[in-house]
Amino acid sequence: MPEENTNVGNVSQHRYEQIVAELREIVEQQSRSQFLIGDRALEIEPMRPSDGRQEALPGRDLFTVRQALATLAEDIGLQRSTVENARWTASRWPVEHRRTGVSFTVHRVLASLPDEEERFAAIRRPPAGKARWTVDDANRLVGRQVESPVSVQEKVTAIHTLARDEEVAAVVTSDLLRRPTVVAQVNADDKVRVVEELTRDETVAAKVTTGLLRRPDVAFRAMSDNVARHQVNHAQAERGRQAREHFEQTSPVAPVVRRIDRTVEFLDLVTACHSFVAAAGRTVPGLHERRLGEDERTIVHQNVARVRATLDWIETAVDTGWVDVDDELARLLRGE
């Protein structure tokens, strides 16, 4: 109850208590009326199992039962659903277990408790610290959503219910993600999942990735991942290939450049051979009267095999234009 000498709304404490007493009597009368409607509906159509095991829930009775209840509802000026709910609730609460001072709505909510003993015991015991049952307390006990959420989980459930509409959910999510204190409380795995969901669109993903890779620490960690590094290298090569194709297809000087490219490739190849021969000419004489160890000889032989395979590859490419690398040569070039 509110404290003495304070108003409740626009009325004094004393007047508020008068109104509460008056309305409780009205609610009690309504509860008796609704139970009476349910009892009379039960008299017309007793509860019957819908599947041979359980009593039918409101709206799931046999067609003939629904017809009779619809006729009764029409004759007394109510909706059929109101009569069905009253009938079902009355069936769950024998007269001796109905509680004075507890609204019909609370009886209806607690009626969903499947175990009779639990149901009848629950209505006799209001929640701890409460003198009377409230509808929220009843919903809380049976696991339904409450009207005035108190706990974190109840508030989360209420938000999910309100955000079932996709547009509402989008606005709520955008607003929440702008609150640093909220984002800070989300664990790393959930943050990753959020980012993945938000970047399903390729344009968004590209923009976000570009922004992140401008951060040195992020770029370093990302490139420490072998798959990520491979994808970046592949993307760079692919972009170069696409740029070259576009140039060759659209530029009027492409034929001249292609001739120059071939000349440059030729010069590069001759230079590579000359460099190898010159390096070998400087190095091999230094082995005079020096005996390499077994491990050293093994390493040199492996590298000579790689050089020999590479030379064969060069000759094949020069003679035939075929530059593909077979699996065995690829392994040699990798040093495997």
Q: Quick recap of the structure?
A:
The protein is mainly alpha-helical and 336 residues long. Helices cover 69% and strands 1% of the residues.
Descriptive account of the structure:
This protein is an all-alpha fold and 336 residues long. The protein folds into 5 domains: 7-145, no CATH class; 149-184, no CATH class; 186-250, no CATH class; 251-285; 292-336. The protein contains 16 helices and 2 strands. A two-stranded antiparallel ribbon has the order 1-2. The mean pLDDT is 82.
Supply the key terms.
mainly alpha; 1% strand; elongated; 336 residues; single chain
| Class from helix and strand fractions | mainly alpha
Strand order of the largest sheet: 1-2
Oligomer: single chain
DSSP strand content? under 5%
Helix-strand layout with pairing:
Elements: E1 7-8, E2 11-12, H1 13-44, H2 63-76, H3 80-92, H4 104-110, H5 116-124, H6 135-142, H7 152-162, H8 166-177, H9 180-184, H10 188-198, H11 202-213, H12 216-223, H13 226-250, H14 254-283, H15 294-320, H16 327-333
Antiparallel strand pairs: 1-2
